Amino acid sequence: MSNTLAGINLQVVAQDSLTTLLAEFPLIQKFTTNFSGEIANRGESVTTRIAKTVTAGDVGTSGYTVTDVESEAKTITLNKHKAFVMGFGDGEVAKGGYDVLRRTFMRPAAHSVAKAVLADIFALTTAANFDSVGTSGVGFNGTSAGFDADAVADLAQHLTDKDNPMDGRIVIVKPSLFTSLSKDVDIKAQYASGTNAPLTENLLPRIHGFEINQYSALPNAGVTNQKGIFCTPEALLIATRLPATPTNWYGNVATATDEASGLSIQLREWYDGDAGQQKIAMTILYGVAVGNKDALGRIIAS
Questions:
Q1: Cα 83 from chain centroid?
Q2: Which domains does the chain have, with CATH numbers?
Q3: Which pLDDT value is given to residue 189?
Q4: Containing H/E element for 159?
Q5: Which long-range contacts (CB under 8 A, 24 or more apart) does 123-128 make?
């Protein structure tokens, strides 16, 4: 087989693919992550830790008394191995080279991988996993039109009632609820305080301590009319590792790692002589788990 894609360095393709993937990953990075470039096999486990709630005490005559700080170990099984594979005909590679890869492979590959990971994360947001925030795990239960700034204020109270920190709070909703917030007169009026993003860019500012996100593929996680969640990063956990590098294989393997987050991806390429195609795959090994059950509530809307 050919050792290169029309003279293209697979490592360069991997690095550019990672850059594209990170652009698709903003929601994933809102949760508690354990990314690493270490090699692992499917079924192995990763242990991470989340902090438990602490309470401040009085400074008395005896001075500053130490309060034990506790963390809770959480095990994440690496049982998800996803890949996106594309095949390029001999003519495509010869004529288009790297431009073909960028246009045809990187963006759809990154999008498909990110969507697969998010689907597995949001599948955890069931009534069985999260039932303590708000009323039996529900912070809002009403009509889509009724989801406004006041409703978000109630979500904030529900998290605060469970002693969750203010930092990193997020709301993720279906577009219909995002639109309801965008139409709220109190939110639209924020242009007077220096931002016209709701009107010009369809972007919402922070509302009652929450970063507001919309995601059209958000599943209902088995709950009728579940159209959103609100949480802190400790609610959901994700760990990624690199799949073990194949041995005695005729293809090529390259990896790329983001220095800031530690997220790594692996690219594999090989030539299929029977099909007359140069094939290339973006692959990721990961696992997801429930973190702090008191850190996420669900949003129900009809």
A1: 17
A2: 10-51+75-123+237-289 (3.30.2400.20), 138-235+293-301 (3.30.2320)
A3: 63
A4: helix 149-161
A5: 123/219, 123/221, 124/221, 124/236, 124/288, 124/289, 124/290, 125/221, 125/226, 125/229, 125/236, 125/296, 125/298, 126/221, 126/222, 126/223, 127/222, 127/223, 127/298
Measured over the CA atoms of residue 180, residue 181, residue 186 and residue 187, the dihedral's sign is negative
Average pLDDT over residues 145-168: 93
Distance CA 96, CA 102 (A): 10
Strand-pairing partners, residue 284, are 82
Banded pLDDT at 191 (limits 50, 70, 90): low
| Structure token pair of residue 302 | 């009809």
pTM above 0.90, yes or no: no
Helix (H) or strand (E) holding 150: helix 149-161
Among the ranges given (79-88, 93-102, 241-250), the one the predictor scored with the smallest mean pLDDT: 93-102
In whole angstroms, what is the distance from residue 299 CA to residue 139 CA? 6
Q: What is the pLDDT of residues 84-122, one digit of tens each?
A: 888 888 777 666 666 667 777 788 888 888 899 999 999
